[in-house]
Amino acid sequence: MPLIDSKALLIHALKNKYAVGAFNANNMEVAQAIIEAAELEKSPVIVQISQGAIKYAGIKCISSIVKTLAKESSVPVVCHLDHGVDYSVVVKALKAGFTSLMFDGSSLSFEENVKITKELARMAHAAGIPLEAEIGRVPDSEKGPLTLEEMKKYYTTPEEAKEFFEKTNVDSLAVSVGSAHRMKVQSAELDIDRIYEISSMVNAPLVLHGASGVKDEHVVRAIKAGITKVNFATELNKAFTNSLKEYFSQHPEIVDVRKYGESARKNVVNTVREKIQLLNSNNKADDVLKYISDNKFFESDKNLNEIVE
Ligand code: G3H
Ligand code: ZN
């Protein structure tokens, strides 16, 4: 089926207390694995493409792969721009047919972040496409794990989240609540009370970034507290790369790309299936499609309060 946008999907998840997995695709095999896993689990899915992936694969090439796979698929698929840091990349993604966008102004001052996010939200909405933005900052842990004290410096406060949301009119909000990007071990614990507080003040789907490093139990509790979109990248990179390493150690003579590509793809399918089950979005594909056909988003200026009840 054609790509869907993320607006109705995330509202459906919010209303029904599950979360949608947003999985980063850096190449064809991973994009195929994400959608195959979603089909096997009968789950809606968000395939996300980062600015880095666009640089690596080319915007037209990687987004066309996702669009083609979605078209052949029986489950709803969103093609989302992940961490659009540059204004021009967000605009290019909109023009390239992405059905969901993120502007990440978390390194800017609050005022600058509001200003650019608000402008991009207006532009995206004029084209019927939702925008995610980030307030507070989800840190990077590539140089090693952060201590709790270090992590706290990046936390989103409920007050800034409320003000940012009201001033920008975004559709979903990425918040910093204890996770960090690129963790290779699942050891992070979230500030669950903070998520409850933010969601009591912000009536919008909340997004958890850096979920690869978060303990499963905390992901589940975060969803109960209001997290509706959960981003995984490192877990998929690990699944792909570890499979290749193992394959080459067992078959050093093989040079056929298809042989090892197939084994890596299978490993990513299994990882994505596990995450979909964790988020409880399995068997929700049909419900989402019905919800979308029963409701009209963007066609009226409906307040989210009316939609979420
Ligand atoms: O935006 C992408 C995610 O936040 C992924 O983070 O690589 O730590 O899972 P991760
Ligand atoms: Zn992220």
Question: What's the topology here?
Answer:
Blueprint: H1 6-15, E1 20-24, H2 28-41, E2 45-50, H3 51-57, H4 59-71, E3 77-82, H5 87-95, E4 101-103, H6 110-126, E5 131-135, H7 148-152, H8 158-168, E6 172-175, H9 192-201, E7 206-208, H10 216-225, E8 227-232, H11 234-250, H12 257-279, H13 285-294, H14 304-308
Parallel strand pairs: 1-2, 1-8, 2-3, 4-5, 5-6, 6-7, 7-8
Helix pairs in contact: 2-4, 2-12, 3-4, 8-9, 9-10, 11-12
The protein binds glyceraldehyde-3-phosphate (G3H) and zinc ion (ZN).
Glyceraldehyde-3-phosphate binds at residues 24, 82-83, 181-183, 209-213, 231-235.
Describe the structure.
There is one protein chain. By secondary structure, this protein is an alpha/beta fold. The protein has one domain: TIM Barrel, CATH 3.20.20. Helix content is 52%, strand content 12%. The protein has 14 helices and eight strands. It has an eight-stranded parallel sheet, sandwiched between helices. It is globular. The two termini are 29 Å apart. The model has no long low-confidence stretch (mean pLDDT 95). It binds glyceraldehyde-3-phosphate and zinc ion. Glyceraldehyde-3-phosphate binds at residues 24, 82-83, 181-183, 209-213, 231-235. Residues 83, 138, 181, 209-210, 231 line the site of zinc ion.
Relevant terms:
alpha/beta, single chain, binds glyceraldehyde-3-phosphate, binds zinc ion, eight-stranded parallel β-sheet, 309 residues, 14 helices, 12% strand, TIM Barrel
